[in-house]
Write a structure and sequence with these properties.
The chain has 106 residues and is α+β, with helices and mostly antiparallel strands. The protein contains five helices and five strands; from the N terminus they run βαβαβββααα.
Length: 106
């Protein structure tokens, strides 16, 4: 999704479902819209890894994108997947604290 801006809540929720939101200057968005045929449409390519867009004329340009969100999307992760990357540390923490405060884990 390309637009001049996105609200914080929308951008965050979009990334949680795997939707890439790219904010570009209004003039650039208008230029891209102008390249789209109303009947046939147009094909554009987004390379999230390189943070580039290639327009229907083959022109490639860069865009800014949050590093953390980019990493999540590139690796197909969500909040649970991110948490599970630390499963060993979580298990060690729980084991340590279960011994000290068993009533918290019953």
């Amino acid at each position: 999704m390309i637009a001049p801006s996105f609200g914080d809540i929308f951008r965050t929720n979009a990334s949680k479902i795997g939707l890439v939101t790219i904010a570009l200057p209004g003039a650039e968005v208008k230029r891209l819209i102008g390249l789209v045929d109303p009947v046939e449409g147009a094909e554009m390519s987004v390379d999230l890894e390189r943070r580039t867009i290639t327009d229907p004329q083959g022109q490639t340009f860069e865009f800014e994108f949050d590093d953390a969100t980019r990493t999540w999307l590139l690796h197909g992760l969500d909040e649970i997947g991110l948490t599970l990357q630390h499963a060993e540390k979580i298990k060690a923490f729980e084991t340590k604290h279960r011994e000290r405060q068993p009533w918290l884990f019953n």
